[in-house]
Amino acid sequence: MVLHLEKIIALQKKTSCIRNLCILAHVDHGGNEYLINLIDSPGHVDFSSEVSTAVRLCDGAIIVVDAVEGVCPQTQVVLRQAWLENIRPVLVINKIDRLIVELKLTSQEAFTHLQKILEQVNAVTGSLFTSKVLEERAEKDAEAQSSCTENSSADQVYDWSAGLEETDDSDLYFSPDRGNVVFASAIDGWGFRIHQFAEMYSQKMGIRSSVLLKTLWGDFYLNAKAQKIMKGAQSKGKKPLFVQLVLDNIWSMYDAVVTRRDKEKVEKMVTSLGLKVMSRDLRHSDPKVLLSAICSQWLPVSQAVLSMVCEKLPCPAEISAERVEKLMSVGARRFDSLPEKTQELKKAFLDCSADDTAPVIVFVSKMFAVDSKALPQNKQRPLTQEEISQRRELARQRHAERQAANQSAEKALSVKAAVEEESKEHFVAFARVYSGIIRKGQKVFVLGPKYNPSLALRLPEGCSVADVLPSIPHMACCTVDRLYLLMGRELEDLDEVPSGNVLGIGGMEEFILKSATISTSPACPPFTPLSFEATPIVRVAVEPKHPSEMPKLVRGMRLLNQADPCAEVLIQETGEHVLVTAGEVHLQRCLDDLRERFAKIEISVSEPIIPFRETVIRPPKMDMVNEDLGKQQKVAVIHQVKEEQMKIPEGVQVDSTGLVTLTTSNKMATVGVRAIPLPEEVTRLLEDNVELIRTMEQFSLFAWEDKTLDINQKILENIQDFKVKLESNLQGHKWRGAVEHIWAFGPRRFGPNILLNNIEGYRRPSVWQCLEREKETERAEIRDFDNSIVSGFQLATLSGPMCEEPLMGVCFSVETWDMKISVPQAQQDSVDEDSQPSEPNNDDQSERSDMHETSSNRSRSRAEAAGGSVDCYGPFSGQLIAAMKDTCRYAFQAKPQRLMAAMYTCEIMATAEVLGRMYAVLSKREGRVLQEEMKEGTDMFIIKAVLPVAESFGFADEIRKRTSGLASPQLVFSHWEVIGSDPFWVPTTEEEYLHFGEKADSANQALKYRNAVRRRKGLYVEEKLVEHAEKQRTLSKNK
């Protein structure tokens, strides 16, 4: 049935008859009037960002699970994404035909297998629900504890229940008797809910359909003698009702049509079911054609899925208050802390009203590129007879004019311009209306993800988009250019779209990069950012084959960045244009888009740029042959130690404990720094709390400038928890009081490295001062050039000494900082000019000076009051930055250095016969198997492994080739891991000499990675190219 545009527009106004849903899967899928906006999303883990953009615009989701493979890693990911967005899922168990045709299961075995799949899916949902309830319980406990502190003397009774007993979770789970499960085989065109069979058999057997509905799925059987449905089919060895009444019929259908090809039995079945099958289908040589013809009439999959969607998934007006609050609470801000005007908009969300008075609220989840030919205004429409005759006349006139030679050149130019215009890409915003009616030509506010709705309070009361307003950060005003109805690949023009509908908006490419919120109210908050499961980790440098086409590449990469929600485009310090993607498949798609759609030029792509991190570890206790280092006799390799010492220049002192002391070139300051490895838990904690560290840094910055920053109570509680966790993980003598002495985090002021202030007598403001603002504490003073020390630390952690990669998990403890600042300024300047130190960090220095201008003025005034004349941002500041950076690097080199590699978790499903070949590929690529388990009811194994990102390129293809396509891996970025081997290792003990030989030239994985990175960056690589070279001698001439 073809729906006309007018019919769809009429349905758009009935909010209760709209269903917005997406298909989430990792496999193929193919009364009242309802308008269904169906968004399909790719199943590969690299494209989980596309799932996130789809899920945000929907109210429900169809989860498609393979009946053979069951719950795969990607199924768990999409269930979690649906849970996080508070959308209601329904389940389709697809490919049941494979249980019959491939696995040759009996109907009883298939029933057990389907029960297990349902249990697995419900187990994932149950774990998500449990974690949510426990979190809420923990929050309540914390609140109760804080309110009961004053009554601590009274007797307290602790309630040990976790809150799970009181919470109703019956609506969460999938169960066929609740109607939210469809059993299907999309390829054969059939699918059903047990409601269909319950109604069918209630007429035949005279049992109420409500009774059958409750007993068709479960441990019930039919007692033929008593004509009753009894419980306990499994214990009594009876056939369950679902097998007897449902599966046996389907199995006998496949047996007659596909396996035995029994024409007589097929005709009997067709007649008894009252179906009409065309004679050509009955005669067809492929039995699947006949099967599809019968099943698509008997149990049409479309009818089963659509009836489930209409009954079980909510309409836009049924959006929950919890989901609205979650969407409106940006970052860590709670809904209660939003401005009052903003909180009032919650009612508009819940009403989902299409009145003219309701504020327009639209969320754009992504921008997608459309060829200009596909836009409705550029499409050819059927011509009337009058238009045809007019065009005929025009064609005759042009033919006459073409005879004139002087017209030909102009014609060619105009045709060329038209072709260029046609080939241009246009961007359409993929969006959903949550409130009001959006109209063509309407003026609206476009709110970026970082927009702060409290800034709207400064605007005059009752202002609208039409007024001339002062500029507010991350807010733009624009006019809605065009509205589109998305009909598959087709776009249809619309004049207005009421709330609850999914739509496309044209002309927004200048205002929206990837996602945004559109509203007529400036008090509207930006929606919570989309959560992406895949992390962009794979980088390549891109350049055009012909340098003259560089502008086209730059434009193409800008368009790609806008079109792909997960891809990132950046320009490195070296000038390279770098593309960052989620994985190998995603990278290939992005490069194809760049070549064929956005840049339309030939491009050269570098080898993947693998990210590494540099760290230090505790001195190892075992050598490379697993012998205890303490009990061994060192071999005479003193020359090696001397070489290491020669690398440290004059003026740098390194003591036996690893403390490095360095003096600036003008001899006016001395800095002593020690590098200490951070515990793994602390590094992970710092990585997970980047946003909190940023907030703390921002507060400190405001405090230095004598301003105040309002921080929500929830964030302060999170910062307090973060501090407590840090203290609990930094235990032991050397970490005593370390958390209170944290000076800064780095690199970029929020990274996984710490600068500690262990200078005697220097008590500076704490990084935790946002927690201490309520306490009456004496104000600590900041020393002059404090910022230079921090800047030096930031630069040192941004690029380490091994291969200029960022540091990770390193703590730099500043133990001495002596300065002689009594020298007059003029003399100091002359000293600086004579010494002419190399200053690679001028840009960074100027940025710091802009940021802390007020701070520098305050420092100058303090210095002048003290009788000195110190310029905190003069030449001496640069020398101190360089000295601090070098001191940190030498302190780092004084400890055992290691590289850290980015790791993928790899989940592979494979059969037993290909396990050996799969393990061979994994071990060849430095992979490590963590877990191997057999999937119940199948011959499939699930293998969980970790694999370095550096070794992952071509891994999926190689596994598929070696296993003949029977194993397919899913790679997701997981964590950073220290590479065990020392990149600077040389044999030092007798056992190592015996084992590795004097040259010790066996493969060193860490050294290989280090040299590859240094070579790519153009740094010096120490390697022997020719060894033991001799002149070639021939037999004829002895030269």
Automatic annotation (TrEMBL):
Start and end residues of each Tr-type G domain: 1-211
Basic and acidic residues composition bias: residue spans: 388-402, 845-855
Q: Name one GO biological process term.
A: cytosolic ribosome assembly
Segments carrying the region annotation (Disordered) are 379-408, 825-863
GO CC annotations? cytosol; ribonucleoprotein complex
Q: Where is the composition biased (Acidic residues)?
A: 830-844
Its domain of life? Eukaryota
Cite the entry's keywords alphabetically.
GTP-binding, Hydrolase, Nucleotide-binding, Ribosome biogenesis
A GO molecular-function annotation: GTPase activity
Identify the SMART domains for this entry: EFG_C (SM00838)
Q: Which Pfam families match?
A: EFG_C, EFG_III, EFL1, GTP_EFTU
Q: Which SUPFAM superfamilies match?
A: EF-G C-terminal domain-like, P-loop containing nucleoside triphosphate hydrolases, Ribosomal protein S5 domain 2-like, Translation proteins
- Name recorded for this polypeptide: Elongation factor-like 1
Q: Which organism is it from?
A: Cyprinus carpio
